[in-house]
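Supplementary Note 3. Input sequence used for the single-chain structure prediction.
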Amino acid sequence: MTTKRLRILVLTCSTRPGALGPAVGGWLTDTLAPVVEALGVDLVPLAIGDLDLPFLDEEEHPSTGVHHHEHTRRWSRIVDEADGFVFVTPEYNHGMPATLKNALDCLGPEWAWKPAGFVSYGHTSAGTRAVQHAKQVVTTLRLVPLGSTVAIRIGDAMRDDRFAPEARHAEAAEGLLAELVRVAHALTPMRERERTGSVTGPLPGSYARRLGPDDAAEVTVLQRCCWMEEALVNDTLAIPALHETPDDVRAWLADWDVTGLWRDGRLLGMVRTRRAGDDLHIGRLAVVPDLRGLGVGRWLLSLAESAAEGCRRVVLTTGATSHRNLALYRRQGYVTLSGARDDGAVDLAKAVAVRAGA
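The predicted structure, written as discrete structure tokens, is reproduced below.
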């Protein structure tokens, strides 16, 4: 359901002067241009020769993610930002080019849990032996190679010195991209768990990360599920969370600090915070109905309160007859600021403890 477009790197691997690789890469991106919008992807063409990567000149092991040279740091950023890869590779002596092997070996965690497709070209074997060689390497880096491939015999694809593959190759390329997109979406939870900034959640296999505008679709569904119960308890449908569109949600996701709890690609809960003067405002604390009573709400509340350093108090709001919520907040030290408001809500606050020596 995510609205984030996938970023797929199309990497031309040959650096030999006059190589066919640029023509193959250009044909691939042109062929796929009509279907990328429907699949929700951005293709990013890049040639290894443009990276200026020397052979393994970093002192630290690639698995550490520590890179001292700017060319490696640049390559690391490019790979880290990608959601999947298509390697356009020739076959040299029954194997992949040394330039591709080096580009793979330069990095470590940046590759993990991303799909890898191959478009190969060559003479007798159409480059397939290079692909088999490469698959042994990419799996060690926790890349996930696709079953679909595009293998092009050079003799069959040249027309008067012009690279012009057959229609079946174009069909194979579209099939490869479609499979790559499906696998990239399926692997998203595994990629996110290892990203900087994600923390282990309170349930087995869960993790929390900051939410942004790209998560508007999941947040909208979560709100509808959770606040319908609030509407029944408080006997009112006049609850903003029930009526917000994905565009409304996208707007406030850009303005608030919002944390979401995930497991296996499902948004289990969320909470948002924002400072206003000496107060930290907490809102939209939500947990999917089937996981209530397992301490998830308390965990999210505690996580939100950790942002209150330097504030005088934490402030939040709930329905005046939302007895489950009121009981949770009062157990955590919140007190009612006043009676029910005209809209049937009640405000609560909690003083922020001052650390010794602060």
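The longest helix spans residues 167-193. The chain is about 35% helix and 25% strand.
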